[in-house]
Write a structure and sequence with these properties.
Uracil-DNA Glycosylase, subunit E, binds uracil, 8 helices, alpha/beta, six-stranded mixed sheet, about 15% strand, about 45% helix, about 210 residues, binds iron/sulfur cluster
């Protein structure tokens, strides 16, 4: 049997999400937000749940937090946003932007796991507590404060592939707590240094970010 391409699998998952009624969020969403980006991405960013603008447009991270995330990707990492993959733990907007419940996360998380297994990224970046909690729990790691798991590199296995995992604060947190913006910037600098190191290892030549774009 010829195995399906990442693009085909991601398209299938997105159409399942469009029909999904596994939790109550389908009733209040305008548009589900499966995720977007490069199916062959080396880096996957995982947020929490769509907000107002994401729900209207059906695209992840397009509001204020999204603009900050895009800026970090394009100015600190120097990678065009379409070359990475961006998604969320929960694919439909929780009403009034409340946090997703445990039950909603549990209902939705298999879509995220399947997306990661299709893309097989080298690095995943968890944006905020819910994303970090879900991904790190697969490696048996629990934490109390998100600040205690940032600036570290974890390894988590998805579909027989070990993937590096970095945790940072949610970009929305950097917007409503301005002193936290430094955390986001420092974490993106760490990410960039990892990308450069990985580039050196696999090429044995001058570091470039080409392989990540
Ligand atoms: N916040 C998130 O966690 N995800 C989005 O897509 C937008 C804002
Ligand atoms: Fe389905 Fe996830 Fe939307 Fe709930 S949030 S309806 S589980 S796609």
């Amino acid at each position: 049997m010829i195995s399906k391409s990442a693009t085909e699998v991601l398209t299938e998952i997105a159409s399942e999400i469009r029909e999904c009624k596994k939790c109550r969020l389908w009733k209040t969403r305008k548009n589900p937000v499966p995720g977007e980006g490069n199916p062959e991405a080396k880096i996957v960013f995982i947020g929490e749940a769509p907000g107002y603008h994401e729900d209207v447009q059906g695209r992840p991270f397009v509001g204020a937090a999204g603009q900050l995330l895009t800026k970090m990707i394009e100015s600190v990492l120097e990678i065009p946003r379409p070359q990475v993959y961006i998604t969320n733990v929960v694919k439909c907007r929780p009403p009034n932007n409340r946090e997703p419940t445990e039950e909603e996360i549990k209902s939705c998380s298999s879509y995220l796991v399947r997306q990661i297994e299709a893309i097989r990224p080298d690095i995943m970046v968890c944006l905020g507590r819910h994303s970090a909690k879900l991904i790190l729990s697969r490696a048996g790691i629990n934490f109390r404060s998100i600040l205690s798991v940032r600036q570290k590199v974890f390894e988590v296995e998805f579909g027989n592939k070990k993937t590096k995992v970095l945790v940072t604060i949610h970009p929305a947190a950097a917007l409503y707590k301005p002193p936290w913006r430094r955390f986001l910037e420092d974490d993106f600098r760490l990410l960039k240094s990892i990308l450069i190191k990985e580039g050196e290892k696999s090429r044995g030549t001058t570091p470039t970010l080409d392989q990540f774009v």
